[in-house]
Design brief:
Chain lengths: 115, 113
């Protein structure tokens, strides 16, 4: 079956522009996560959804970052007034449930470059 | 902040050799997971070891866990050029809803043909 997909794969934005990154999780997966991965680093947690509810957004770096999952499937991560420090790969992951032993399936990521 | 730290940061070996990567973490865990990331791609789950397990195998992969030392190791035997990738250990963040993961900085493995 289809895995997690993300679009666009690459995004170049001018500083100050708004961007929207899309994630299509595996169908039926309850949990959805967003991570940010800086160059040469491991991913860092941003936010977590259980169905349409955003249960944890403690990793969002500023109030310029906003995520939603209105119907409990597709999710969008929006970054307003982008800054150069926002340049990173944004990874989306989904899992079938919220148990500690549920495997997370990752998408290919969106590489954001802010000029 | 990242919970795990991998060692070494980079490793270069010849095809056929074994590769060992280590991970140390700070707080108590329920499980530890290893992921692989090929250049420019997402992460692929390799193996999960629970806190009450000491060793686990999957194909050419062998993972050990020592909770008393808060460390884990990933051994890849008979390496292949296709094993060239970055490898990350990850642990669930306790005390939160869901099972979001905290990752180490990764080991970049290069296997030369």
């Amino acid at each position: 079956g289809a895995g997690v997909s993300q679009s666009p794969r690459y995004k170049v934005a001018k500083r100050g522009q708004d961007v929207a990154l899309r994630c299509d999780p595996i169908s039926g997966h309850v949990s959805l996560f967003w991570y940010q991965q800086a160059l040469g680093q491991g991913p860092e947690f941003l936010t977590y959804f259980q169905n349409e509810a955003q249960l944890d957004k403690s990793g969002l770096p500023s109030d310029r970052f906003f995520a939603e999952r209105p119907e409990g499937s597709v999710s969008t991560l929006k970054i307003q007034r982008t800054q150069q420090e926002d340049s990173a790969v944004y990874l989306c992951a989904s899992s079938v449930g919220q148990g500690l032993y549920n495997e997370q399936f990752f998408g290919p990521g969106t590489r954001l470059t802010v000029l | 902040s990242q919970q795990g730290e991998e060692d070494p940061q980079a490793l270069s070996i010849q095809e056929g050799e074994n590769a060992t990567m280590n991970c140390s973490y700070k707080t108590s865990i329920n499980n530890l997971q290893w992921y692989r990331q090929n250049s420019g791609r997402g992460l692929v789950h390799l193996i999960l070891i629970r806190s009450n397990e000491r060793e686990k195998h999957s194909g050419r992969l062998r993972v050990t866990l020592d909770t008393s030392k808060k460390s884990s190791s990933l051994l890849i035997t008979a390496s292949r050029a296709a094993d060239t990738a970055s490898y990350f250990c990850a642990t669930p963040i306790r005390g939160n809803a869901g099972n979001m993961l905290t990752f180490g900085g990764g080991t970049r493995l290069m296997v030369k043909p």
